[in-house]
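Hey, I was hoping to borrow your eyes for a little while. A protein chain has come my way and I'm curious about its shape. Take your time with it, there's no hurry, and the full record follows here:
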Amino acid sequence: MPTTTPILSQSVNLSTTLTPNSDSVTNTNGSTITETVTTTVTGTGTTTTGTGDSTTATGTTTVTGTDTTTTGTGSTTTGTDTTTTGNGTTTTTGTDTTTTGTGSTTTGTDTTTTGTGTTTTTGTDTTTTGTGSTTTGTDTTTTGTGTTTTTGTDTTTTGTGSTTTGTDTTTTGTGTTTTTGTDTTTTGTGSTTTGTDTTTTGTGTTTTTGTDTTTTGTGTTTTGTDTTTTGTGTTTVTDTTITGAGDTTTGTDTTTTGTGTTTTTGTDTTTTGTDTTTTGTATTTTGTATTTTGTATTTTSTVTTTTDTDTTLSTSSTTTFNESFNGTASTVIGKSDNITVSVTGFGVITNINKSLVIFIVCLFYLL
């Protein structure tokens, strides 16, 4: 039996601190969704331009008529507010001479006629029919000089009628006709202007030399308003009776208002065919230009961003217990150190007194 030695009574405090694994959970699951959908639709413009159809009709002019000689032309003047100014000079030499003067018809209002007529007749049995010119229209100015010289016996001249119909038309021309011979028909120059705002300027000269010739001169008829006519006077001589021989001046600065004078000499009848002028109408048709432009449409979708919330979870607990005991041992323990045991794998840190460890070892030894 071994000898026992009393063991120092020692009070040991065993302090054990258990710190469970501190759980720290950080969940960072951020999801970001960015959607960019851009749809752009641009309509295509459609342009349609109609093609213009242009149709221009060709004018057709038909002139039908026969000029007939009339001996013994009457003179008719009918109108209101007419001013006639002119100088007439007539010289007649010969026997058995018949001269039928110029027939002049003026119908209208506010008409001014100014002109000088000179007629010279030499020979026997000569018939001269003066100049007739007809102008019908409004605001028309006709300026012309008519000169008729007849030498010979029984001469017939039939003047030509010219018809101009239109608006705002200007006609300028000179007509000259010369006929020499026996039994000759000469068509002189006549001018008829019908229209509005028309100006006709021309000079007509007719010279006839021969036997058995009848000359129908150019007369002037003006019908309308605000018209100026320059024309020829009238002289009548029958059977060696000379009327107005010498210098005769009639109508100097004379105003005749609304006076109608009609003189008819002879039996012959003059029929002048009708001039017909037909002018086609120009028609222009232009198509319609149509422009259609498409609509541009832009659609942009919505951008959505979703981010998860970060969550941190921490858990900690501490357990402390104290344990004291009294015992004996065969060895005196004189040291009192602390031993720190760290078990990191389980997250447990234990502080154990060194003396207690020695004591426990001795205790097991004794047992």
In short: The helical segments are 354-366.
